[in-house]
Each structure stands twice: as C-alpha cells, then as structure tokens.
Design goal:
Blueprint (H helix, E strand, L loop, with lengths): L2 H16 L4 E7 L6 H7 L7 E7 L5 E5 L14 E5 L2 H12 L3 E5 L7 H9 L3 E4 L1 H7 L5 H24 L6 H14 L9 E3 L11 E2 L9 E5 L1 E3 L5 E3 L4 E2 L7 H20 L6 H14 L3 E2 L4 E3 L6 E5 L12 E4 L2 E3 L6 E3 L2 E6 L2 E4 L8 E2 L1
Parallel strand pairs: 1-5, 3-4, 5-6, 12-21
Antiparallel strand pairs: 1-2, 2-3, 7-8, 7-9, 9-12, 10-11, 13-17, 14-15, 14-16, 16-19, 17-18, 19-20
Helix pairs in contact: 3-4, 6-7, 8-9
Length: 369
C-alpha cells in the first residue's frame, strides 16, 4: 500500500473511531455512478458491476467483488486483498461474524449497496450505520497528490469547453458540437468518466432543464453547456461558461443573472476561507441572485472528488466548516420567476488560507462566438 493510500486509511479510521465502528463497508457501483469510493480506498477502478471495500477498525482491509467480475477491470491495480464471491454480502457477513463485529458503518447504504447484500449483513445481526457524510468529510481535504490529479482534470475540462466553443455555430446539432469535446476527453484519458449535457431555449435565453446533447437538438444563439469530467486520476471537476452568438440579444433576466454571476465570483474568492461554514459561503455567493429575486434550482455547490457529488454541500443550514485544500464545484442555478430564463456556469474552486481560488483560467462571462 502506497503512502497516499495509507494517508486515506488513517483519515477514514479516525472518522470510524468517532462513531465507534468495528468496521466500515464502502460500496461502489458502476451501475449507479458511485464507483469512485472503491478506487479511493483500493486503487482499483470499477469498469463494470460493483464492489465493496471492507475496512476493519483493526486489521487489513480487503475488497469483495461478485464472482462474475473476476476478469472485469485491471485487478492488478488493487493494492489490498481481493476476494471474489457469488454473494459478496454473505462473505462479508461471515467475515464480520468471525471477527466479532457488531457495529458496521456503510458508505452507500441508501444509494449503492445491493438489496441482497444489505439483507445478508442484517441477517448476521449486524447494526448497520449510514456513513456517507462521515466518509466524505474524511476525504474532503485533498493531498498534494490529489490536487495534482484535480488540476489535470481541470486542464482537460477547460480545454474541452474551449473545443466546444470553437465548434459551436447556431444551427448545428448539440451532438455534433459535444462530440468534438468528447473526442478530446477520451483522448486525454477520461474514458467513460464524463457527464456532459446542455441547457438550451431560445436565441435570447436558456431554460433550466438539463438535456442530453442529441442530434435532433439544434443549437440556438444562446446556450449553457454543462461539462463534468474526471481525468486519468479519477478526480471529477466541473468547468463551463455560457455561450452566445455574436449578434445574440439576451433577455433582460439573463443579463441581470450574469451580473449576479460576477458578484458570486467575487464573493467566493473572499468567502471560501478555512473556518467559514458552508452556510456562510452559500449566503455570500447567493446574495446577488436573491437580491434580484431569482431562485437557485440546483444546489449552489458541493465538495467534489473521486465521486462527482460529495459532502459537504454549499447550502442553507450546512454548518460544516471549510478547511484548506478542500475542493468544491460551484454552479449557482439561477432561475427567473417565470421559470423560463436561466443561467448556469460551473467552476471548480480550491479553498486556501487567502480564500477561494478558481482552478480554471476562464473568465466568468458569456463567450461570444
């Protein structure tokens, strides 16, 4: 096990000790988009199917796969013991009973773990403790090695936006333009770890719904690409800006939302400091939108890492304090009272002692084609 993986286990076990856990089961599934947690604690990237990393409070960790996954993925990359079993839950239950575990935390209990495996653990008399928030907080502060991976993902994402912008012309299909960006993402080693969509509407505003970039979707004079990728290091990032044709006349609400976006960008630079709460940051960055009577549809922001959306979230009432080297995706989803006009732009931010630092070099503006 390399030093980076050892650091991660130290942090996770400290969080386990606070909850008096005998063990932790970290669920990952390609089916549900939560595969990154398994990579975070094992080095193995799930290509298909699912797996569980089991972390005893005392003892060596191991990863359990369903038997049919024996030849799916590069198993030589795993840095911990690997087990293949027809019913992973039954195997984990047997190991738990043999070790005398009673209180077991589960990351992914509600969204990731299969029903049959949860039933197997419950049948063994184990107390299953939801552990999503605690696990995410244990991995929220990034190491230097992780930040190198994050910056590489931002490099890829930023250039992907530029390629999308370079190929954009009103009248082209969304699929045609997005394909050029996806080609770049694949060439740079993202593989399947991309989630790219668009928000479109009229020539003067975009509607708030996220869409797949399909061939039948013809691009107008204003649109909002939504670009999210993870580079070879598997750290997700989000970087995008609004795009308009040179002669597009934007709606009054769109123009006012763009003004609020500039205020958010400035506020985030000062508000995202160690010791500030997620609630404080939300209030600071959302003020310009709320003062103009716009509401925020999607969450304001969230921690981001090897899983696309991690805790803590930037939002009302979230009292978790920021710490240096946390990484957040910020994307206020501003929506007009009519429910029609919307502005949504993404940036990946680093928390530093001096405040928030955007990791891309793109100005916070509409890019005019």
């Amino acid at each position: 096990m390399d030093l980076e993986l050892e650091r991660r286990y130290t942090n996770v076990r400290a969080a386990m000790a606070e909850q008096d856990l005998d063990a932790l089961v970290v669920a990952g599934s390609e089916y549900s988009g939560f595969e990154g947690a398994v990579t975070y604690l094992s080095g193995f990237q799930i290509v298909h199917r699912y797996a569980y990393v089991v972390v005893p409070a005392d003892g060596e960790p191991f990863v359990v796969f369903p038997s049919e996954a024996r030849y799916v993925g590069e198993h030589g990359a795993a840095q911990i013991e690997q087990v293949f079993h027809d019913r992973p839950g039954a195997h984990m239950a047997d190991r738990a009973q043999g070790a005398g575990w009673r209180r077991v935390g589960v990351y992914g209990l509600e969204y990731v773990m299969t029903v049959r495996d949860e039933r197997a653990l419950e049948s063994a008399g184990l107390e299953l403790v939801p552990f999503d928030v605690e696990f995410d907080l244990a991995r929220a502060v990034k190491s230097d090695a992780e930040l190198e991976s994050v910056r590489d993902s931002v490099r890829i994402n930023e250039r992907g936006f530029e390629i999308f912008f370079e190929h954009y012309t009103p009248g082209k299909s969304a699929a045609e333009v997005m394909a050029r960006a996806e080609e770049w993402f694949i060439a740079e080693g993202c593989g399947r770890l991309t989630m790219n969509m668009i928000l479109t509407g009229t020539d003067s505003y975009a509607r708030p719904e996220f869409k797949i970039a399909r061939r039948e979707e013809i691009l107008s004079k204003f649109l909002l690409p939504s670009l999210e990728v993870a580079g070879p290091g598997m750290h997700w990032v989000e970087v995008s800006r609004a795009i308009a044709a040179e002669d597009a006349e934007l709606s009054e609400d769109t123009e006012r939302m763009l003004e609020a976006y500039l205020e958010y960008d400035e506020a985030a630079r000062s508000a995202m400091r160690p010791g500030a709460t997620c609630h404080d940051v939300h209030r600071a960055v959302s003020a310009g939108f709320l003062e103009r009577s716009y509401h925020l549809g999607h969450i304001t922001g969230h921690s981001i890492g090897m899983t696309m959306i991690e805790f803590p979230k930037i939002g009302e009432g979230v009292e978790t304090e920021l710490a240096e080297n946390m990484v957040f995706s910020m994307h206020p989803h501003a929506i007009a009272a009519s429910g029609e006009d919307c502005v949504y732009m993404q940036e990946t931010w680093l928390v530093t002692a001096e405040g928030g630092v955007p990791l891309s070099t793109l100005p916070m503006q509409v890019f005019r084609a």
